[in-house]
Amino acid sequence: MEDAEKAGKKFKQLIQILDSLRGKHGCPWDKEQDERSITNYFLEEVYEAVEALMSGNAQSLAEELGDVLMEVVFLARIFKEKEKFTISDVLEGINQKMIRRHPHVFGQKRIISSVKVLEEWNRQKRDEKKREFLFDGMGKHCPALFAAFQIGLRVSAYGFDWKQPLDALQKVKEEVSELENVIEEKNGEGIIQEIGDILFSVANVSRLLWVNPEIALRRANEKFLKRFKYVEKKLKKEGKELGQATLEEMDEIWEESKEKIK
Prior knowledge:
Layout: H1 2-22, H2 28-32, H3 35-55, H4 58-81, H5 87-100, H6 103-106, H7 114-129, H8 144-156, H9 165-185, H10 188-208, H11 213-237, H12 247-260
């Protein structure tokens, strides 16, 4: 309770700071922002928070979560000015939703497994949103790989799924074979479709292995960047720049980097 009271005071202070920044004598830059410009910063801060989470740096994560929270309060302030809603409305909404969707904790309903909890959550969500079809209301602006992951999650809740990860992996192999065929045929549209099918299938393999493909790909990207930076540094020590080294030379250093950077 003491921690909640302390957090409440800090949160109130953040609201007051945003009020001042957007007020009559506030910051010119902050006063110029609207919901569109803040959306860009909001997304940037979310990605930075994910990066900090993946790094395992708790101090960095705490800072980035603060930045995300600031953007939430900023957006709420903008819509308060439009007389649409306030930050209090936001908090009241999520509080009531969490209570409503956990009747086994805050009510009398008995649910004893996480699977049943998800079923109850999804049922309430459909009823509340009055959605007719499974994919109604699905976000249109999230990364495509993450969207594929979410699509698989939704249909799997109703039994439309592979029995095990290896079955889904077999589908990836089938799609790769189909890609090889359209490459040989030089079928441009077919290549686009088959690459999409491969990525979609990989997202499903990831889901069945309880791995978020977006996070896995981010880690792979980061690993590649570190290894290639190693290649660049090694070349510079040898008095060479990128473009001056042969593929064979870069491959040799690349293999060396794989031993040092896991």
